[in-house]
Amino acid sequence: MNQTFEIVIKNARLRRLAADLADIAIQDGKIAAIRAAGSAAKGQVEIDAGGMLVTESFVNPHLHLCKVYTLRMVGDEAARAYHGAGMGKAMTGIELAAKVKEKYDESWITPNASRAVAQAIWYGNTHIRAFADVDSKGRLEGVKALLRVREAFRGVVDIQVVAFAQDGVLREPGTEALMRQAMEMGADIVGGIPWIEYSEADMQEHVRFIFSLARQYNKDVSMLVDDAGDPGLRSLEMMALETIRCGWQGRSLAHHARAMALYPQPYFQKISALLKKAGMGVVSDPHTGPLHARVRELLDEGNLVCLGQDDITDGYYPFGRNNMLEVAFLAAHTLWFTTSEDLELLYDMITTRAAQCMGLKNFALQVGAPANLVVLNQPDVLEALRFHDAPAHVISHGKLVEREKFKALAFGH
Q1: What's the distance, CA 289 to chain centroid?
Q2: pTM higher than 0.85 for the full model?
Q3: Which end of the chain is more exposed for a tag (fewer CB within 10 A), N or C?
């Protein structure tokens, strides 16, 4: 007697198994069975993939969600400084972009963020690590908004809210207290940016504070490190060493590390070894700045690397749709990842490797794993990246997402 499942995806093409189609059964939020196509498995809901690719859903480990759609509020001045002159004026760009926080208010951040998350749903992005600035200008308005959005989309998109000391801790009086308040309010991740401090001693103190807060609240850490064209920046090294010292292996994640592009080879080798010892992943967003982490070399050395959206129409980047296939398509060009093997790696970096960076457990298309899946309109990774369009179907937490309900919010029609 054939079992009836909640959902069955029929005639699915799986990655690296191009010759054989499969039926995927889903029950109680998990992948219950993967059988050869034509297995006669029945579903209360049945989806015919028609030989198109079915994979894990997409994961975005880096998005400044409190800033989305603020470009018109700040203009082009910040991006001009951030992207120009070999990123030598990156700090100036951040200072210019911070002007928007003088207008921060939960009342307008919430709908902006909700629109971006609705777009994530449309494009099959089911997990987001979302940064909310915490400082004397923005106060806790971003945190309040993102916590509200997290709850509104719970069960469809999992949002990890990062309390993020964007303008520093030592150089921004009052930030320590605000960060503690953010964690008490329910933020999921402790976020820092040590390189922005004025001295090396202050950078080190910034790192120590972030990790002490993480240990106090038993939370993971995300830090934007060395995000400028200065090969002398060392906050990535500081972060890795503190991760090891605190026993936080596998619970800290580095973002950007753009100065790595300028490292001497011996120092890069040292950093690579430290990252592995610390169990630290690196999120690269190569489409949002002219420098980027040495992704290929990190991968060759056995490091964990993934891709993030970073920004959506804000002072740093004018585009973005929370479409991780689009991010990978852009990375194929900025990183020159164009072979078949490269494309598979890019796909991993927006699915399974990104999930690992975010601390998601058992995020894979295998029996017993949580059912977070996309049914694409293309038969393989090459075509998926070529078109980078929305999936035909999205399954989140074992449920088929009714995406049409979110279309008006996502696109205004």
Answers
A1: 16
A2: yes
A3: N
